[in-house]
Amino acid sequence: MQDIGFELGGLFISAFISSTIAPGGSEAVLAYMVATGYYQVELVVIVATIGNTLGAMTTWGLGVLAAKKFPVSTLLSENKQKALDVVKKKGIWTLFFTWLPVVGDALCFAGGWLRLPLLPACLAILIGKFGRYAVIAWMLV
Prior knowledge:
The chain is mainly α.
């Protein structure tokens, strides 16, 4: 018999790591878990969403810390500078798009750098992350 708690923990860790500056493949882990039919789809989506959101909020927190110590021009890569400009111009709901590859981490970092309000930022990130995982799961069910 499989240990579901251990496997869900693995999904959580994969989702968390995938949403920080480290590369990861949480979508593949989620897809595998859904495709097996062994796991409750809603639970898998929720675990992945929570892990990925917490990872994104970690990146957001790194942006807050970086803004306290370093000026924008000396620290940010071109990608992060562009993300900062977009978030500055468009506002908190740009964080909905943190699920996108490549630019998502930069958007999280920019949101923290700009010190966007914590709860609205977390909500926008959560909605985007949930939507991505829900679509992946829906495609496999």
